[in-house]
């Protein structure tokens, strides 16, 4: 297989370059191969594939979407050991899929995309990597939202005398036994690792800026007979996937209505009251916003861990560090040996936007000014032939795979049409993009994300919800089934350069 072609200027040139080796990038590679398109490479900055499941190895790291739905619909895994798979198993599933679909010949490991610029002069993407410059007609930016840690800007934190690390850069070499540990943040990661470290440490202090609604997690081992049934009768696993999808879709629909979510909130309230008997701690852990406004969390051992004698919850953010003393915004303080930052990831502003330049040489993040905007969450104005996975306003309260597969259907349809019809460039139509985004923002106004009374990572620094898809995932999938060329600005190749249909698409 000819892995690359040289154009007249002797630059390395591909039809398509995928950036990112997580589930989105891997899915893109599989779908390109299925379409008979082999002239592509996948750039992965690390020494192995895996994305968020390679980066996060903290104790207790697991998925909060049942495994039946947290997997490709076309590649079900009958061997999951639990209802909610853990990190190692999910990473192994990714490796198994890489092998099965023979993706590795296209993968360039340890090659980081430092900059991607669209050139009108050359009519292609110019991608600077740590191993040199590459060019491609199309780029699929599959960098994912959960890999760039948010590090708090706290006075004196750089002078902390003990050990400090982010949960996504877990120090497995550091024994926490008998240590005084502070955890900053109470998001999805902290909910998983706090119960794992609580029994080991001498004292655990949790800094909670905002209390979270936490639902019970219906996790359990999947016994051998169940796994055997999934293997022998794949339809049974499909049914399970369908029912899990239905549950998530019901929650997703409920988020459109604050009144409906207040009813749903009763389950979370019961869960809190059942586990936390101390009235002072219970008050600290009771949120003052409607469930669904922030990401909905699930755990069976979070509340029991916080109720232990060696745990103290400070209902305030960290304001200052003096030597080994941590001082909260409310004045409370504690002495610690280790700080673990459970402060999450950059969601509202995709980090890739700092590396992508449009046709005018403007950085995507500078154009957005804190409020990302695109068309169908997949293409951005003045960035021809560039596709963004997990782009603006495409997040849903469901499995990431629902978004990935919907977007890949859309992108593949665009690429197939481009190859068949001899299209040189595709880019969003500014007028249609404007109308689309006005509709999205109008639809979000009445949702719990916007009206639930919380500050969440869905809302960007300008106070705009530039993250969430406001409708059902049924509508998302329906809209993305077919790439409507008439909604875009299209430029065709001269007829003499138009490829024959059989050249790339089988």
Write the layout of secondary structure elements.
Elements lengths: L4 E2 L5 E8 L3 H12 L5 E4 L8 H4 L31 H14 L6 E2 L4 E7 L4 E6 L2 E10 L21 E4 L13 E5 L3 H10 L5 E5 L6 E2 L8 H9 L1 H21 L3 H18 L3 H6 L12 E2 L3 H5 L4 E4 L3 E5 L2 E4 L4 E3 L2 E4 L14 E2 L6 H5 L17 E3 L11 H22 L1 E6 L1 H15 L3 H4 L21 H7 L8 E5 L8 H4 L2
Helix pairs in contact: 1-11, 5-6, 11-14
Q: What would CATH call the homologous superfamily of the largest domain?
A: FAD/NAD(P)-binding domain
Q: What's the oligomerization state?
A: single chain
Largest sheet: 9 strands, mixed
Estimate the helix proportion, in percent.
25-40%
Please report the number of helical segments: 15
Shape summary: globular
What is the CATH C level class of the largest domain, in words? Alpha Beta
Averaged pLDDT: 94
Strand content: 15-25%
Low-confidence stretches: 5-9, 500-506
- Number of DSSP-assigned strands: 21
For the termini, the CA-CA separation is: 16 Å
What is the CATH topology classification name of the largest domain? FAD/NAD(P)-binding domain
- Class of secondary structure makeup: alpha/beta
Tally the structural domains.
2
- Radius of gyration computed on alpha carbons: 24 Å
CATH architecture of the largest domain: 3-Layer(bba) Sandwich
């Amino acid at each position: 297989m000819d892995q690359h072609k040289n154009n007249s200027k002797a630059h390395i040139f591909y039809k398509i370059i995928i950036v990112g080796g997580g589930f989105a990038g891997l899915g893109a590679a599989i779908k390109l191969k299925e379409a008979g398109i082999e002239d592509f490479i996948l750039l992965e900055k690390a020494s192995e594939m895996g994305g968020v499941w390679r980066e996060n190895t903290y104790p207790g790291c697991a998925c909060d979407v049942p495994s039946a739905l947290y997997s490709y619909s076309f590649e079900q895994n009958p061997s999951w050991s639990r209802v909610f798979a853990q990190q190692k198993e999910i990473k192994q599933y990714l490796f198994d899929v890489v092998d099965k679909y023979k993706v590795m010949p296209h993968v360039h490991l340890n090659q980081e995309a430092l900059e991607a610029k669209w050139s009108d002069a050359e009519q292609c993407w110019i991608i600077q990597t740590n191993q040199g410059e590459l060019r491609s007609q199309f780029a699929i930016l599959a960098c994912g939202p959960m890999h760039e840690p948010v590090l708090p800007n706290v006075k004196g934190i750089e002078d902390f005398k003990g050990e400090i690390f982010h949960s996504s850069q877990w120090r497995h070499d550091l024994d926490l036994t008998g240590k005084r540990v502070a955890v900053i943040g109470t998001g999805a990661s902290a909910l998983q690792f706090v119960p794992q470290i609580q029994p080991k440490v001498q004292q655990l202090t949790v800094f909670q800026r905002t209390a979270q609604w936490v639902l019970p997690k219906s996790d359990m081992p999947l016994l051998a007979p169940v796994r055997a049934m999934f293997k022998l009768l794949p339809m049974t696993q499909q049914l399970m996937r369908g029912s899990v999808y239905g549950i998530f879709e019901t929650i997703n629909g409920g988020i459109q209505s604050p009144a409906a979510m207040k009813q749903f909130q009763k389950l979370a309230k019961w869960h809190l009251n059942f586990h936390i008997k101390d009235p002072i701690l219970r008050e600290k852990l009771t949120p003052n916003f409607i469930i669904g406004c922030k990401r909905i969390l699930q755990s069976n051992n979070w509340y029991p861990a916080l109720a232990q004698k060696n745990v103290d919850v400070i209902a305030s953010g960290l304001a200052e560090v003096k030597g080994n003393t941590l001082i909260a915004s409310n004045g409370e303080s504690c002495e610690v040996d280790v700080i673990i930052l459970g402060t999450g990831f950059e969601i509202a502003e995709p980090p890739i936007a700092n590396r992508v330049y449009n046709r005018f040489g403007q950085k995507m993040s500078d154009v957005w000014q804190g409020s990302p905007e695109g068309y169908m969450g997949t293409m951005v104005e003045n960035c021809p032939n560039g596709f963004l996975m997990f782009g603006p306003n495409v997040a849903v309260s469901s499995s990431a795979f629902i978004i990935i597969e919907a977007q890949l259907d859309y992108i593949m349809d665009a690429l197939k049409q481009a190859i068949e019809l001899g299209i040189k460039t595709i880019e969003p139509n500014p007028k249609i993009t404007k109308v689309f985004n006005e509709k999205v923002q109008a639809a979000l106004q009445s949702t719990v994300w916007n009206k639930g009374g919380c500050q969440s990572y869905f809302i960007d620094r300008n106070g705009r919800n530039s993250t969430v898809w406001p409708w059902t995932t049924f509508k998302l999938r329906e809209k993305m089934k077919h790439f409507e060329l008439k909604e875009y600005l299209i430029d065709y190749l001269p007829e003499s350069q138009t490829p024959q249909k059989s050249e790339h698409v089988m």
